[in-house]
Fold this sequence. Notes:
mainly beta; 3-stranded antiparallel β-sheet
Amino acid sequence: MRIAAAALGLLVLAILFGVLRPDDVGNGAVATTPTATPTPPRVATAAATPTAAAPVELSSVWVEVGTITPTPTPWPTLAPQPSPTATSGPSLTPRPADCVSFTWTSRQMFAPFAHVLVEIKAVNRCRRDLGPFDLWFEISGWRDGGLVQTVRGHPFDRIRPGASGIVAIGLPGSIDWYDEVRVEIVD
Length: 187
């Protein structure tokens, strides 16, 4: 009984350490040490990093491979570049609000009637002329957090690229009636 238990223990150890395969046990195989087979030469790659040894089956013989060399990742393909002779699409024309900067002042005017005169100095930063109806300003008068009066106006003359123009717009009411006056460009 002791001999059978010892033989069974040796058989289990032989299977665990890879000397025998489990399918050889029933064929009456005797535990032997595997013969070393030559490993193929390693090819050096720039991106190869050695990894832990892993068992690999080659032609029904178990051998141990020292390093596994990963396949290098190919470079990503770039999208085709347009040829220099290709014409690009039309460029978008900027809105007047995007290419005009302005400053404004307000003062009380009593003649011909009482109103707040808002003078706006607009500078054209676009590469095109701005006609009188291309550029509209909205002036709003606010009191106690509520909108009281709104008027719109535009310049009477064309504003050339890089030049400035003055726009004067009257807001009905007196300057002490409004808590706040706002000036905005309307698209």
